[in-house]
Design brief:
Blueprint lengths: L1 E8 L4 E6 L5 H16 L8 E4 L2 E8 L2 E7 L5 H19 L4 H6 L1 H11 E2 L2 E2 L4 H16 L1
Antiparallel strand pairs: 1-2, 1-5, 3-4, 4-5, 6-7
């Protein structure tokens, strides 16, 4: 099961955070700082899976952004690694070459995409067209 989903830049600023288990705000802040520090300090040659406390971290770097997912021991790391890539591809398709600014200024859209893909910490959809369908409907409604 997925515990949390983070997007951070190279400076360690969180651009997106979604938690699937309740965690108090101060503990979230501490967790994010520790997780970001452990991911940013690794070289590109090192594995993208990290054992961290009572769960695992799976991360991927795309240009200046890191996508970090915290999972429990039973979740498949490679499936989550592919989920991260699929998520970025969906963002790329929707925003036509996604950037950090797209994420910052369209955070509601990014959350909709993530919510279409992951529900209560479980991966529910991977088809790009089905993931983007609600957004295209919202865009049509906004145009008219």
């Amino acid at each position: 099961m997925i515990k949390f989903f983070l997007m951070v830049n190279k400076q360690g600023q969180t651009r997106l955070s979604k938690y699937y288990e309740h965690l108090e705000i101060n503990k979230r802040t501490m967790l994010e700082a520790e997780v970001i520090k452990s991911c940013l300090s690794r070289s590109k040659d090192q594995c993208s899976f990290i054992e961290y406390k009572d769960f695992k971290l799976v991360y991927r770097q795309y240009a200046a952004l890191f996508v970090v997912v915290g999972i429990n021991e039973t979740e498949n790391e490679m499936a989550v690694y592919e989920l991260i890539h699929n998520f970025v591809e969906v963002l790329d398709k929707y925003f036509s070459r996604v950037s950090e600014l797209d994420i910052m200024f369209n955070l509601d859209r990014v959350h909709i995409i993530l919510d279409e893909m992951v529900l209560n910490g479980c991966i529910v959809e991977t088809n790009r067209n089905r993931i983007l369908a609600p957004l295209f409907v919202l865009d049509k409604v906004a145009e008219s």
